[in-house]
Amino acid sequence: MILRPNYFVGIQVSNPEIHQVVKMVQEVILSKEPALRTTLSSIPTLHITLAATHLRDIEHVNRAAEMVEKCVSDYKEFFSKSTSLHFSGLHTFGDKVLFAGIQQGDVLEEVALMAKDLEVSFQELTGFATKKGFKPHLTILKLSKDLRLRKKGISKISSNLYSDISNTVFGTQTVKGIQLLSMNKPKDENGYYFCSHQVTFDVSCSESNDHTECCKKPLSVKPELKNVSDLKQTLKEDKNIIKRRFHSLSMAGLSSVFGSANEPPVQRDSLLKTLLIIGAVTGAIIAIVRGMSSNK
Hints:
Number of helices: 8
Strand order of the largest sheet: 2-1-7-8
Helix content: 40-55%
């Protein structure tokens, strides 16, 4: 009998810069295929899985925590230096999982060795092998999160959704520690996995702790956008257009439309028509800008 994993050991990816790029990549994909919204990884939960297992009770959880402590003690000297993982490029596992790759290097090699030790330890604890080999990645979306998509004709992640942004550079994450995390318990107040135990390394990093833009704002989709650069540019242009539009309206003009009822009807009608024309022209300009962005 094979039991589904309910705990895993992971490295939290908490750098807001990485979060923001992942969010923009997800927005680009949703602009092309909105049905994939239910397959997206939640931004606050971004992590790298080192090993997964099934822990049947609190005793096994405590023993697993001890194994995590013992395993990572051999690597503390290495990870207590300033060590970082670099994320770039989009790849898939069999067109079922889209993920950001991790660049090869000494840090990733040490993480891989630690992952192998953890897998062996969990197998000794439970008697089951629940994962075959360490495949370092940062999941952006996976189809298994919504099996109903098959009925909609979506059985794989088309390369057309991300080919224009396949070389995206996501950023760098300092390895701050290792965590034993629950898959089934409620998330914490920040939306991250329930942490049963963690081992932290004595490292310092300059990564921001401000997650306002990446985690506290919902996804907003701009249609027909081709890549992340288009997304940023279009948002900026839309904002400037709207700003110029309202700057051109005087407070006196607005007051004459919405203010005193003693204003002559002809004047009020004229100003109202002007507002409507400005609104229509602005809408047309925005549509053109978006169309130009989608054709880049």
